[in-house]
Amino acid sequence: MDRFEAEVLKIMEKSGKDKEKSINSLKQQCICHKCYTYNDCAKNAGEGLYCVIGESEECVDNDMGCICHECPLAQAMGVGTIFNTYCIKGSEMEERKRLHDLDRITGGE
Ligand code: SF4
Ligand code: SF4
User: Fold this and answer.
1) Model pLDDT for residues 45-83, shown as the tens digit of each residue
2) Is the pTM of this model over 0.85?
3) Pick from 78, 3, 64, 75: nearest CA to 34
4) Which atom of ligand 2 is nearest to the CA of 65?
5) Which one-letter DSSP state was computed for residue 33?
6) How far is the CA of 107 from the centre of ligand 1 (A)?
């Protein structure tokens, strides 16, 4: 398990206010609000931290580029390069699972 998975697991083990607090604290470090793909709808809905939470509920669907690779949080957790554009494609864990499933089907070819 890498740092990202450990962090997500730590959050998921929490509940209620504790979980909300952890998510909000990580959200503060998210730089999605500086990205061209992020829009007013996402801002008003308080969206962000898509790498952990998953895709945008109903706001983001137009890919204008992704700056996750510049995100200090992503860099600290080793994500944002192989997978990104989480607001449209889904969370890092979902992307990893998709790749894992594909590898199982193709035998890694
Ligand atoms: S990696 Fe992307 S989605 Fe995750 S916190 Fe950073 S900017 Fe936000
Ligand atoms: S996940 Fe990437 S593409 Fe989406 S808003 Fe954040 S930085 Fe931009």
Assistant:
1) 999 999 999 999 999 999 999 999 999 999 999 999 999
2) yes
3) 64
4) 3
5) G
6) 31
Structural domain boundaries enclosing 76: 3-106
Q: What's the structural domain count of the chain?
A: 1
CA-closest candidate to residue 67, choices 48, 42, 94: 48
Centre of ligand 1 from the C-alpha of residue 77, in Å: 10
Six-digit token pair at 80?
A: 């944002």
Residues touching ligand 2 (Cβ under 6 Å) are 32, 35, 37-38, 50, 66-68, 84-87
Please calculate the CA angle 7-106-55 and round it to the nearest 5 degrees: 40
pLDDT digits (tens, 9 = 90+) for 14-24: 999 999 999 99
